[in-house]
Amino acid sequence: MKQAITPFTHVIERMKRLLLIVFSIISVTLSASAADGLSADTPWILTDGATFELTQQTHAFKSVYAVFTAPSDGTLSLTTPEVFDLYTDGSYSTQSPVQPEWNGNYSPRAYDLTVTAGTTYYFLAKFVMNYGTVSAKFTAGTVPITLVSISPAQGNVLEVGSANISLLFSKKVAVGGAQLIVGGQTVDVVATSNNAYIQVEIKSAMMSLYNKGVVNKGMNIAIRLTGIHADGDESCIYGDNGELTINYTATNKPIELISTNNTPTGTPNAVNTFYSWYMADNEQAQVTFTFDGEIATSGSNAPMATLSYGSAEMEGNYYYSEKLPLILIDKNTLAVDFRGVLRRPVDMIGDDINFGVIQLILNNVHGADGQSAYSSVSGAIGSYGVEFTYQPVNYRPSSEFTPRSGAELDNVRSIELWLSEEGDGVCHFDGVWVKFIKNGVADSVKVTPTIETDPEDANAKILTIAVPYIEADANSEVTVSLANVLTPDGVDHSAIYTATYKLVSGATSIKQPSISGMKNESKAYTIDGRLINQSSNHRGLIINKKKMLKSE
Question: In this predicted structure, which of 20-34, 230-244, 309-323 has the lowest mean pLDDT?
Answer without folding.
Answer: 20-34
